[in-house]
Every structure is written in structure tokens, then in C-alpha cells.
Specification:
Distance between the termini: 22 Å
Order of helices and strands: HHHHHHHH
Shape: globular
Radius of gyration: 21 Å
Length: 241
């Protein structure tokens, strides 16, 4: 119990950790709120009322994350500059997918900032266009991230086959175990990206695939799945370090 509490406190003390916790609570509230408000049995109006309150709470947490992202541009720019065109000698396809992914992420932030400022009446602009553009960039980033993970899995499988042909030494066994762990991590990333991408498509204009057709509980479910995977991966990374 004490270790769990200390782990939670450590997570909340970091910006990324706090954002992931807020994200999980946000989508979890939308999931439960959507289920409760969807159908209310006769004589139980309190369930619908609780569901609506949870949906409002989820919306406030989402707005909180939007405001906090106002300060992410510089950190994203620093990461993009440090990555550049990717390390020399690495796989060319992987490098260019990562570069395009960084470009999409970098453009996402200012578009979302303009949309937020327009909604807040800070600038004279139509927020709908900017929200659409930021959602499209987010979706593009998710697609590129999925392609990157697929490419990584292919490369890891090649390395795994090389290790298998190398023999059964202790170092080779350790290498294979590490490669399998990395592959599982990339598979989780694909699952997380697909869950988020389903929501990104839902928030596109009506007529585009299943845009606008998800009920609140399904949006919450997809977001909760992606959020929990993010928390698992963050904790796994911390454990490895």
C-alpha cells in the first residue's frame, strides 16, 4: 500500500505523469458517465444525474489538459531539433516516418492554441476550423506512430532471428528477451494509437467514416484503453531505469 502511494505521488509530481493520470480520469469519467446517462431505469433519476455530472467533470478535465498543453511547444521543438533527420546508419524508413511524425506533432500545438484562444474570445477567429485542423494533425500523428511501431516490429523480428541463429549463450538469451519485450511494447503502442485514432475520426466532420457516431461511453472506453496503456508503459519504463 505504501509503495503504491509513493509510486502515485512520484507520478503526479512529473508533468507527463500528471497528464497521463488526468487523461485516464477524464476518459474514465466519460465512460462511466456515458453508461449512466444513456439509459436510466424508471424510478432512478439519480443515475442519470450522476452520469451528467461525470460528463461535465470529464469536459473540465479535458479543458484543463488543453490549457496545460499551451506550454508544450518548446519541449516538442527541442525534441524535434535533437532528433533532426534521425541518427545516421539507422533504418531510412523508420527515420522519415519519425521525422514526419515530429512535424505533425509540432504543428498540432499552435493549431490547438489558436482554437483554444478563439473559443476563449482572446482572438477574432473561428475556432471550428482550427479544431478540425488540430484533430486532423493528431490523427496523422497517430497513423504515423502506428506505421513507426509496425516498422520497428519488423526490424526487431529480423534482429530476433539473427540472435536465434547466433546460438544459446547467456548474452543471446538476454538479447532475445529484451527484443521480445520491446516488441510487446510496440504492440501496445499500436493498440493505444488505434484506440485514440478511433476517437480522432469520431471528432472529424460528419460524413467522414464514423465521425460523430460514437456515444459518450464508447469515446470514454477508447480513451481509457489508450490512457491505461500509456500508464503501463510509463511505469514499465521507470522500472527499467
Amino acid at each position: 500500500m505504501q509503495e503504491s502511494l509513493e509510486s502515485l505521488v512520484t507520478t503526479l509530481e512529473s508533468y507527463r505523469g500528471r497528464d497521463k493520470v488526468i487523461r485516464t480520469i477524464c476518459y474514465g469519467s466519460q465512460l462511466v458517465g456515458g453508461v449512466l446517462s444513456q439509459k436510466t431505469p424508471p424510478g432512478r433519476p439519480s443515475s442519470s444525474d450522476l452520469g451528467n455530472r461525470l460528463l461535465l467533470f470529464s469536459a473540465q478535465l479535458s479543458h484543463c489538459r488543453t490549457v496545460l498543453r499551451l506550454f508544450d511547444d518548446l519541449s516538442m521543438l527541442a525534441y524535434s531539433r535533437s532528433y533532426g533527420l534521425g541518427p545516421e546508419g539507422s533504418d531510412g524508413g523508420l527515420r522519415w516516418i519519425s521525422v514526419l511524425n515530429n512535424v505533425a506533432d509540432q504543428l498540432f500545438y499552435p493549431c490547438e492554441h489558436v482554437a483554444w484562444a478563439a473559443d476563449a474570445k482572446l482572438i477574432p477567429a473561428r475556432s471550428e476550423r482550427w479544431w478540425l485542423l488540430s484533430t486532423a494533425l493528431w490523427g496523422a500523428s497517430l497513423v504515423l506512430g502506428t506505421l513507426r511501431s509496425i516498422r520497428l516490429i519488423v526490424l526487431l523480428k529480423r534482429r530476433l532471428r539473427k540472435c536465434a541463429r547466433a546460438g544459446e549463450g547467456s548474452s543471446e538469451t538476454s538479447s532475445r528477451s529484451q527484443l521480445r519485450r520491446q516488441m510487446r511494447g510496440e504492440m501496445l503502442t499500436i493498440l493505444s494509437s488505434m484506440a485514440d485514432l478511433s476517437n480522432a475520426i469520431h471528432w472529424m466532420p460528419p460524413g467522414f467514416l464514423w465521425a460523430g457516431k460514437f456515444p459518450d461511453w464508447l469515446v470514454g472506453l477508447m480513451g481509457t484503453i489508450a490512457s491505461l496503456i500509456g500508464l503501463i508503459q510509463m511505469n514499465a519504463s521507470s522500472s527499467d531505469q
